[in-house]
Design goal:
This protein is of the alpha/beta class. It has two domains: about 260 residues, Porphobilinogen deaminase, C-terminal domain (Double Stranded RNA Binding Domain, 2-Layer Sandwich); about 80 residues, Periplasmic binding protein-like II (D-Maltodextrin-Binding Protein, domain 2, 3-Layer(aba) Sandwich), CATH 3.40.190.10. About 35% of the residues lie in helices and about 25% in strands. It has eleven helices and 15 strands. Strands 1, 2, 3, 4, 5, 6 and 12 form a seven-stranded mixed β-sheet that branches. Strands 9-8-10-7-11 form a five-stranded mixed β-sheet, with helices on both faces. A three-stranded antiparallel β-sheet has the order 13-14-15. Strand 1 and strand 2 form a beta hairpin. The chain is globular and about 70 Å long. It is found in: Cytoplasm, Cytosol. It holds the Pfam family Porphobil_deamC. Monomer. InterPro entries: HemC, Porphobilin_deaminase_cofac_BS, Porphobilin_deaminase_N, Porphobilinogen_deaminase_C, Porphobilinogen_deaminase_C_sf. Belongs to the HMBS family.
Length: about 350
């Protein structure tokens, strides 16, 4: 039964229930991530009926071009958002790092789930088992489609060469294993873990070697901002520490005006009621960089949670069950750190990086 924009079905007992449709990319990892969110919702709301709708996105179709060259900020999200806009789905599950820091009008991130490891991982060609980036032979070729990873690792491991590798996780691992083109590739640890391929991780890159992408390791649920009932339903999935860390990271990136086409990296930590944010910008070859750390308290002064305006988004995130004051501080932290780096010359580094990348 279709009723207005919503879909309903009769259950076994003849009761009419609304079907909640979840949009996802078709890749195996996207499906695993979406299924994990669906399972959590089923557990919390046993009476709802969920339907998963798989789609292909531009980023899934253009596989012969480096991500940073395509220049489209919403490569993996636009088609999903179009389906959300047309009421074909009610919510969409994304990797948070794929979502631009400014969402199209009418959409919001209604849940940010507990973050898996945000770090990057080294996956070695089978013939290099037992080695690390340090011990790989001179001029070994490392595959990565990320300017952020390449910029940091070129500086840290000058004896290695870095080349673009595209495709979903399955494709990239196949390219690594079946050819001799790459000595190793760099992937997000979170994706490998979710796929059950933890045994392929040879080395986890700590922040001193390679800081991670904004939002890396966290899953986000995007909804229509006006759907109060859906927003309410998914808001229970929010993980407060992850929300604050990701608001700070996204605010940092947004204020720098960074995107896929410039090397920007972060590292966040919540410790003793303080949120620490380290952020950095790099030239494409990693020779120039600016990096700093700032912190803010995340204890609400006002003990009672104030009535949070559901229309208020912070860098695309709506978290109306959390203190708005603390969320504001997390956002401010990102903006302040971006301003500090801008005052030291970050804009020049990023502008040159963008121009060089466009010219490649």
């Amino acid at each position: 039964m279709e009723e207005g924009p919503y879909k309903y079905i009769r259950d076994g007992a003849g009761k009419v229930c609304r079907v909640i449709r979840i949009g996802t990319r078709k890749s195996q990892l996207a499906r695993i991530q979406t299924d994990s969110v669906a399972d959590k919702l089923k557990e919390l709301y046993p009476d709802i009926h969920l339907e998963i709708v798989g789609m292909s996105t531009t980023g899934d179709k253009i596989l012969d071009t480096a991500l940073s060259k395509i220049g489209e900020k919403s490569l993996f999200t636009k088609e999903l958002e179009n389906a959300l806009e047309r009421n074909e789905v009610d919510l969409v599950v994304h990797s948070l790092k794929d979502l631009p820091t400014t969402l199209p009008p009418g959409f919001t991130i209604g849940a940010v789930l507990k973050r898996e490891s945000p770090h990057d991982a080294v996956v070695l060609h089978p013939k290099n088992v037992g080695k690390t980036l340090d011990t790989l032979p001179e001029n070994s070729v490392i595959g990565t489609s990320s300017l952020r990873r390449a910029a940091q690792l070129k500086k840290r491991f000058p004896h290695l060469e870095f080349k673009d590798i595209r495709g979903n996780l399955n494709t990239r691992l196949k390219k690594l294993d079946e050819k001799e083109d790459f000595a190793a590739i760099i992937l997000a640890a979170a994706g490998l873990r979710r796929m059950g391929w933890e045994n392929r991780i040879s080395q986890i890159l700590e922040p001193e070697d390679c800081m991670y992408a904004v939002g890396q390791g966290a899953l986000a649920v995007e909804v229509r901002a006006r759907d109060a009932d859906i927003l309410e339903m998914v808001s229970i999935l929010h993980d407060p520490d992850t929300v604050l860390r990701c608001i700070a990271e996204r605010a940092f990136l947004k204020h720098l005006e960074g995107g896929c086409s410039v090397p920007v990296a972060v590292h966040t930590e919540v410790k003793d009621s303080q949120l620490y944010l380290t952020g950095a910008v790099y030239s494409l070859d990693g020779s120039e960089s600016l990096k700093d750390t700032m912190q803010t308290s995340i204890t609400a002064d006002n003990k009672s949670i104030e009535e949070v305006d559901e229309r208020v988004q912070r860098v695309g995130v709506t978290a109306n069950k959390m203190s708005g004051e603390v969320q504001d501080r997390a956002e401010r932290l990102g903006v302040d750190l971006a301003n500090l780096l801008l005052s030291k010359g970050a804009k020049e580094i990023l502008t040159v990086a963008r121009q060089l990348n466009d010219a490649r």
